[in-house]
């Protein structure tokens, strides 16, 4: 796995509070980004499943099974 550096700007008061509470900013940002990516991937999978369901005219129960199966990948 290779790494890249990403930078962002935050308000000074936010940085000061993060330091006060010994928050590992890099770790928090990595986790937040990973969670957002996962959320969007799930949304994309849901939309794909809906499209396939409409094209195949699958019952709702079958569509739910496809979504669950896709999330488990």
Query: Can you tell me the number of structural domains?
Result: 1
Nearest-integer average pLDDT: 90
Q: Roughly what percent helix? A: over 70%
Q: Gap between N and C termini, in Å?
A: 20 Å
Quaternary state of the chains: single chain
Secondary-structure class: mainly alpha
Number of discrete helical segments:
3
What does this structure look like?
The chain is mainly α. It has one domain. 74% of the residues lie in helices and 0% in strands. It has three helices and no strands. The protein is elongated, with a radius of gyration of 19 Å. The relative contact order is 0.08.
Keywords:
elongated; 73 residues; mainly alpha
Task: Briefly say what this structure is.
The chain is mainly α.
Which secondary structure elements does this structure contain, and how are they paired or packed?
Elements: H1 12-20, H2 25-56, H3 60-72
């Amino acid at each position: 796995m290779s790494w890249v550096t990403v930078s962002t700007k935050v308000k000074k008061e936010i940085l000061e509070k993060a330091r006060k509470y010994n928050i590992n900013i890099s770790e928090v940002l990595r986790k937040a980004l990973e969670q957002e990516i996962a959320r969007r991937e799930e949304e994309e999978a849901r939309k794909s499943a809906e499209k396939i369901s409409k094209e195949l005219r699958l019952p709702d129960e079958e569509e739910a099974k496809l979504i669950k199966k896709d999330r488990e990948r």
